[in-house]
Specification:
Helix content: 55-70%
Low-confidence stretches: none
Radius of gyration: 15 Å
Bound molecules: zinc ion
Strand content: 15-25%
Order of helices and strands: EHEEH
Mean pLDDT: 84
Structural class: alpha+beta
Shape: globular
Oligomer: single chain
Largest sheet: 3 strands, antiparallel
């Protein structure tokens, strides 16, 4: 809506599970212009899917680096 959307209190695992099972995911915006909560539509769901994939990649990458440093 205005680029200030937030996933409402959900863990990454819960979000992935809901995407996979087709259950609803709530988003909210609490900026200067809006104070709303809504259920993600198909477009938003695909954005969330990309987002969770990116977060997973980042977390996995960080884990690898931490292990590498630990070995040195
Ligand atoms: Zn807003």
């Amino acid at each position: 809506m205005c680029g200030q959307e937030y996933l409402v209190g959900l863990e990454l695992e819960t979000i992935s599970d809901r995407l996979a099972t087709g259950r609803s995911i709530k988003l909210c915006c609490n900026c200067a212009h809006h104070s709303v909560t809504w259920v993600a539509n198909e477009v938003e769901r695909s954005q969330i899917r990309e987002y969770t994939a990116a977060v997973r990649f980042f977390v996995a990458d960080k884990g690898r680096r931490a292990r590498r440093y630990a070995l040195q």
